[in-house]
Amino acid sequence: MYLQGEAVRCVDDGDWPYVVEVRFTDVDGRQWSVVDKIVMFGTGSLSEELFDAGFPYPAAIGVPCRVLGSPTVGDDDEVVTVAVLPERGCGPEVRVRRRQLDGAEPVLVSACLAGVPCRYDGRAKTSEAAVGLVEDGRAVVVCPEVAGGLATPRPAAEIVGGDGADVLDGRARVVDATGADCTEAFLDGARQALAAAEAAGARRALLMARSPSCGCGQVYDGSFDRTLRAGDGVTAALLRRAGVVVTAGQAG
Questions:
Q1: How much is the pLDDT for 234?
Q2: Which domain holds residue 10?
Q3: How many helices (H) and strands (E) does the chain have?
Q4: Among residues 77, 125, 173, 189, which one has the fewest Cβ atoms lying within 10 Å of its Cβ?
Q5: Do residues 123 and 203 share a domain?
Q6: Are 107 and 44 in contact (CB under 8 A)?
Q7: In the listed set 101, 120, 151, which residue is the last one of a domain according to the structure?
Q8: CB under 8 Å to 75, separation ≥6 — which residues?
Q9: Which tens digits make up the pLDDT trace of 3-36?
């Protein structure tokens, strides 16, 4: 279980996993601060590369906790006592409102939709729906292309010879605008995205439309003249095969 918190700064970015400061508020309005490695928190697939690409602070984040004893009744909401970071065995015990505990289903989200400037052109494509998931602490944020080792910015890439499903089956390739084959990076990033979804228990994904990684239902056809064809990106295709429901998100 996670307590809704907010990552406010990076304390140590010398070696991965980075150390961050996370704050949350108890039922009496007192603000608490905990400092630990980023992997100790509910961050889904946030990786070193994604942070280096410009992860925005402050950001919603889940603080692992365990409910202690039986709930009592607060003014307008149920109040519970939780042990924070129980794995560490030394976290504080605090009283919070049950609505601060995140039991909602996580959703895999393309990082660019969440406001991370990790697209091929070094920009974000921020979506209100994705930001809402981040603010609710439900987003499992991932950029498959960055996770696969590609730089930001990078040459635009398209699928040549089919769609993402064809790439998975070896019938098509992903090629960038310079002619370089980047298929393996896209496959690796797709596998990492699926692993992040499975680790978080995410059964739905909100993905960047028309992307060679994340496109759902439509992708560019490999001609680099903005012609669309039916099909999914590589990551979207792999997620579908694993039973994840994928939806195209739009910037707005």
A1: 98
A2: 2-101
A3: 6, 15
A4: 77
A5: yes
A6: no
A7: 101
A8: none
A9: 888 888 889 888 877 888 999 999 999 999 999 8
Q: Are residues 35 and 62 in the same domain?
A: yes
pLDDT number for residue 139: 87
More confident of the two residues 169 and 83: 169
Cβ pair 213, 238 in contact under 8 A: no
CB half-sphere exposure, 133, CA atoms < 13 A:
26
pTM of the model: 0.65
Looking at the fold, whether 89 and 170 belong to one and the same domain comes out as no
Confidence check: pLDDT of 97 > 90: no
Q: Which helix (H) or strand (E) holds 146?
A: helix 144-147
Query: Burial, 39: exposed, middle or buried (Cβ in 10 Å; 0-12, 13-18, 19+)?
Result: exposed
CA angle 110/172/217 to nearest 5° reads 45
Q: Return the SS3 of 120.
A: coil
Residues 195 and 177 occupy one common structural domain: yes
Q: How many domains does the chain have?
A: 2
Is the pLDDT score of 75 beyond 50?
A: no
pLDDT value at 219 more than 60: yes
Please count the residues of the chain: 252
Same structural domain, 85 and 170 = no
CA distance 45 to 139: 10
125 and 57: one domain? Answer: no
Rounded to whole angstroms, the Cα distance separating 2 from 234 reads: 31
SS3 content of the chain, % helix, strand, coil (to 5): 20, 35, 45
The pLDDT of residue 221 is above 60:
yes
Angle (CA) 217 220 223, round 5°: 155
Same domain, 53 and 135: no
Picking from 47, 66, 101, the residue at the C-terminal end of a domain is: 101
Cα dihedral angle (122, 123, 129, 135), rounded to 10 degrees? 80
